[in-house]
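User: Hey, my collaborator sent me this sequence without any context and asked if I could get a structure. I don't really work with proteins. Can you help?
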Amino acid sequence: MIPAAAGASVDPQSALHTYAQARLADSDGALALAVAHYGEALALDPDRVEIAERAYVQALESGDKALALRSAALLDQAGLLPRDGTLLRIGEALEQRNWIAAATLADRMEEEGNFAFLGPILRSWIAVGEGGSVPLAIDAKDRFAALAQRYVDEHQALLALNAGDVEGAKLPLRRAIALRPADAGLRLSFATQLAGRKAKAEALLLLPPGQAHFRQARAEIERRRIKAAPLTPAQGYARLLARLAVDIGSDREGIGLALRLARIATFADPDSPENHIIAARLLTVAGFAKAAIAQVDKVPPAGWYGALAQAERVDALAADGQIDAALTLARTLAAEPDAEAERHVRLGRLLAEQRDFDGAAAAFRAAQARFGDAAPPWSLLLFEGSALEQGKRWDEARAVLERAAALAPNEPVILNYLGYAQIERRQNVAAALDMLKKASALKPQDPSITDSLGWAQFVTGDVKAAVPVLERAAAGAPADVTINEHLGDALWTAGRRYEARYAWAAASIHAEGDVATRIAAKTKEGLKPEYAAP
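Assistant: No problem. I've predicted the 3D structure and written it out in structure-token form, which is a compact way to encode the shape of the chain:
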């Protein structure tokens, strides 16, 4: 916040006062109010760069296209436009069918470097707009070739379909689907394009029967002719940015940029349900649950994408604290005929978060049942085993977790969970220690697994080996309560009393409930049997 001069009277209509209101709303997570104030402040003082910078980011996050473009123009004049601002301006040029401006901005994008790998795909869409075509080829010698190739197949297929060449679209389409086999939105969008070009059989192949996500689309493709206009350059560009947003958003550190890219995609193609679904998902992850719910509302619930949008609504409602509404919707989706495994998993996770571990385990078993006689993914067994273990049904949990380990004997997450759960109960200790050694060797940089190994060594009496392992775990996760408590117990046993209290103090910062009470007691009195970590 920019402070007013000491003793000065602040004009409530001044740009600085409005900007201060915007920053306050921003810090409180009131996205819509913050954007409104940023817009007012920018109108009052369009030359103030810091206002334009905040307005730009918040306008993109909130989906205020007009404010985003206005603040981007001001930042560009000041030479401070972020690199994703160039992408915003490209989208606007494509919407306006200003191919010369779009090509000039494509040059700029490539010179800036960050998104240069998008150049060949963007130029192919500009060529479509101009009434021609440009071969979509990636120079293998280009340093961004591998990254660009991730997006080329989808757009080669779209360009071929735009030209009515269904045969030419088949191979790149298969590669695009193979890259993202679980992406239901991608399958629906290609099915629309294929069915709209009388390739009914090919469209249905993309939509496996017996899946609730595709039930309506399959029925409509089978009984009537589907209309699908060729994609405009703006729409093709929007799909490119949406796909890039999904990839960047898979890493929590990239969520801010991913959300901005998704918003730019919705600006370039506001009628795409797929883009709104992606934006909603990223808004939820970024902490803007209410905005995510509003985004989901832009997808017709009765349309082909309605079920996918409602799944995002479950996550957004839960993130917004509307747990009862989230559970009600999750149960409704999971109860539909042919409900996919992911619907049951979503319900199971919600139930587990509410400590309904029996309900969660049942939901995870329902997800496994979707695989019929085939072995379910080990992750579903891990989910069920975890729910059973937390629900104090250990014998059942152990059997399920052992099945998971048999399916994926080199999966460190399973080895860690099963090994640590047995160490906690002092069962099968030697074998559990071997599991944890293997897990640590497979994933040596994971602090949680390192902690499990160190604690197992401590429990089995090898304090000398345990201390350096636990120290390494604490260095990797310095705020983790469990790791710091384990380290403190091991240090105390090793005779390093001062360091032990330091580790317990670190653990106490975020400890709660009985754990906090236990740590406080041993910090004061030292380690006694009744104060030992479980």
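In plain terms: Confidence is low (pLDDT under 50) at residues 1-12. You can pass these tokens on to your collaborator as they are.
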